[in-house]
Amino acid sequence: MLVLLIEDDPELSDGIATFLAGQGDSVVVESNGMAADRLLQERKFDFVLVDVGLPGLSGYEIVRRIRERRQSLPVIMITARDALDDRIYGLDLGADDYLSKPFELAELTARMRANSRRGSNAIARRIDFGPLSMDTSARHASLADQPLILSSREWDLLSALAEADGHTVPKERLQADGSVNALEVYVYRLRRRLEPAGLRIRMVRGFGYRLEISTDVADKARRDANS
Ligand code: CA
Description:
By secondary structure, the chain is an alpha/beta fold. It has helices at about 10-20, 35-40, 60-70, 85-95, 105-125, 150-165, 170-175, 180-195, 215-225; strands at about 1-5, 25-30, 45-50, 75-80, 95-100, 125-130, 130-135, 140-145, 145-150, 170, 200-205, 210-215. It folds into 2 domains: about 1-120, Response regulator (Rossmann fold, 3-Layer(aba) Sandwich), CATH 3.40.50; about 125-225, Orthogonal Bundle (Arc Repressor Mutant, subunit A). Helix 2 runs parallel beside helix 3 (about 60-70). The longest helix is centred in the middle third of the chain and has 20 residues, at about 105-125.
């Protein structure tokens, strides 16, 4: 794996880089947050290890930008802080996992293995539901063979509904930011684009939402299949 290690403590980065190189990984070390953000746009890394406190750009901001660019590579945050809030904040921004300093190098590789497995599962995933098709590795969606451009939040919502394959998804699972109003806004925006293609987001009152294929579209598909 080509690993980008973003860490400004030279002793720690030397230790991690030597250890990972000994395991057969190629490691690029960068101590400045801005420079690391540039590297991430220039080269294709398989894995990112990023410290929270960095000169130039914080680790949080680096993670936020990685996900904003729809880069799907696994990211582990290295945090000196013990506060649970800081860790949750990193995960909310799109980090896959975190390690608190000090940690054992064996712990680091165990977490890296677990998270790259999860990453490669995601690469194989393709979600199809009626006229909707979502490729989770490329983050590319199409509706009735036309590209469907989705924001990150819309992507999460629609992929959760499509993956449930017609079953109702509880509201709690869909509202990542904890706000019911925001969820309703996203559902409304998605509906306007899905309905012309024969997909409906049905609300199950007091419970959640599910994705359905409109019956007239389903009937037409059946007629086409029989003709
Ligand atoms: Ca630091």
